[in-house]
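ok new one. same drill as before - structure tokens go in, u give me an amino acid for every spot. 475 of them this time. try not to just spam alanines like last time pls lmao
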């Protein structure tokens, strides 16, 4: 991403853009620089803490919400079975899922173009768990950022072993709990309960998955940390193409702040408001200096806004030197407002959501595929009847078993189900069956006749299927 500083502001280190050549967490030798981020304090941090409580509540509670015996959400990738808002989706719903994905991607593009990394800072599980859970535990066990740094530099004393040991045990236990909840989203709480309570030998794969997820979460939160956002997360890496100069970002007001200079009780007219106190850098969990402009590593956590506001208040300056703003807003001094562009994007997002909701609501609960049995031609039955054999495959997405019958629509003839008078498809399941369609010879006027077959549950017509009937034509 290009530097955000205009030529007019020479006091900003605009020539020195080497910070863009490598990650803030990597030193000259290419080694990882551990970030000892100061604990933030302030109104944004308080608001994010409250937001995170809702998030934790939702994350932990959702797998336990069942509707008509079905989880509200389930993402069973291994068996390609998904439940969204209590509605089950099979691979046959690929079209809706595909469209949903496209709508979701457009949503992300529009949302990011308008609101920047608001999601990363306030809702992303990686940030929320790291900053509001693991980092707080770290402050609690190892102390402030300065104390953590001192501890890291110490030899392996008893105190260090005790603190580090306690922290990593707690981290692993938390990761194990998170892994359990995460697995509940994939297999459901009932299956998870079985893994926990039944003999290990019966759930080797489940247990292995549980330990694997625990290990991954532990490694991410104990060691990998901000690298997940700056190196792995594709959303983070796409910021340079998703953001533009009108996007809302956490931005430093260089017009007001530069030239920066140390605080002095005697007002210096030639200096801007930035006290060059480096508090915004010390508090940043990704180790960047937001005064250098928009950077890929910024996860929009607002910690620098809070700390800078505190510094401004302490020195009786107006707050908001670092604030939510757009690059153009900083340049022109315009306050961030709900712009026409944002309104347009919100409208587009609304339309997308409505299209998706309509598709979900009009989706068939019982979906069938009807085909003539491969390799079979027509059969003559007696002197006046022709038959064709058909295979039907049905997916039942409802909460109850459905006994299906079939009738010919607007046509003489009958449907004869092989092996009974209906095809039973169990709830949340798939079923298959075969039936003959018998037509009077006189009604078969062409080699191929298009026919429509009604699919019924009792007297309720569920769907109408179109197929072809093969016959002969008397020359
Ligand atoms: S916290 Fe504010 S005043 Fe201090 S260096 Fe950062 S921008 Fe400047
Ligand atoms: S620059 Fe500010 S908002 Fe961005 S990650 Fe660092 S502290 Fe958070």
């Amino acid at each position: 991403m290009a530097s955000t500083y205009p030529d007019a502001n020479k006091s900003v280190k605009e020539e020195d853009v080497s910070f863009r050549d490598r990650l803030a967490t990597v030193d000259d030798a290419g080694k990882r620089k551990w970030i000892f981020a100061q604990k933030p304090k302030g109104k944004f941090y308080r608001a994010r803490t409250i937001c995170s409580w809702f998030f934790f509540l939702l994350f932990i509670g959702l797998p336990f919400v069942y509707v008509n015996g079905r989880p509200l959400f389930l993402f069973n990738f291994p068996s390609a079975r998904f439940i969204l808002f209590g509605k089950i989706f099979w691979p046959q719903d690929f079209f809706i899922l595909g469209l949903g994905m496209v709508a979701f991607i457009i949503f992300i593009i529009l949302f990011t173009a308008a609101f920047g990394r608001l999601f990363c800072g306030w809702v992303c599980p990686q940030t929320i768990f790291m900053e509001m859970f693991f980092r707080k535990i770290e402050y609690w066990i190892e102390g402030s950022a300065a104390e953590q740094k001192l501890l890291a530099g110490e030899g392996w004393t008893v105190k260090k072993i005790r603190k580090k040991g306690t922290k990593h045990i707690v981290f692993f236990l938390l990761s194990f709990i998170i892994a359990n909840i995460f697995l509940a989203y994939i297999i459901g709480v009932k299956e998870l309960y079985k893994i926990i309570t039944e003999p290990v030998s019966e759930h080797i794969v489940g247990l292995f998955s549980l330990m694997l997820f625990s290990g991954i979460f532990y490694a991410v939160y104990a060691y990998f940390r901000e690298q997940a956002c700056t190196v792995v997360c594709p959303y983070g890496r796409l910021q340079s193409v998703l953001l533009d100069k009108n996007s809302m970002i956490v931005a430093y007001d260089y017009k007001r702040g530069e030239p920066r200079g140390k605080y002095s009780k005697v007002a210096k007219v030639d200096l801007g408001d930035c006290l060059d106190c480096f508090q915004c850098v010390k508090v940043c969990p990704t180790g960047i200096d937001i005064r250098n402009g928009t950077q890929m590593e910024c996860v929009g956590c607002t910690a620098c806004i809070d700390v800078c506001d505190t510094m401004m208040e302490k020195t009786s300056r107006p707050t908001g030197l670092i604030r939510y703003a757009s690059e153009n807003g900083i340049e022109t001094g315009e306050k961030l407002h709900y712009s026409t562009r944002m309104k347009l994007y919100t409208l587009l997002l609304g339309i997308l959501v409505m299209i998706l909701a309509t598709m979900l609501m009009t989706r068939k609960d019982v979906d069938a595929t009807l085909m003539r049995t491969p390799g079979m031609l027509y059969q003559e039955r007696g002197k006046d009847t022709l038959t064709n054999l058909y295979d039907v495959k049905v997916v039942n997405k409802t909460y109850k078993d459905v006994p299906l019958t079939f009738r010919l629509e607007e046509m003489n003839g009958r449907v004869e189900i092989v092996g009974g008078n209906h095809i039973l498809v169990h709830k949340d399941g798939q079923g298959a069956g075969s039936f003959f369609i018998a037509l009077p010879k006189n009604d078969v006027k062409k080699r191929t006749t298009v026919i429509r077959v009604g699919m019924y549950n009792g007297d309720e017509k569920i769907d109408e299927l179109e197929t072809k009937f093969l016959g002969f034509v008397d020359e």
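The longest strand covers residues 385-396. and btw Confidence is low (pLDDT under 50) at residues 1-15.
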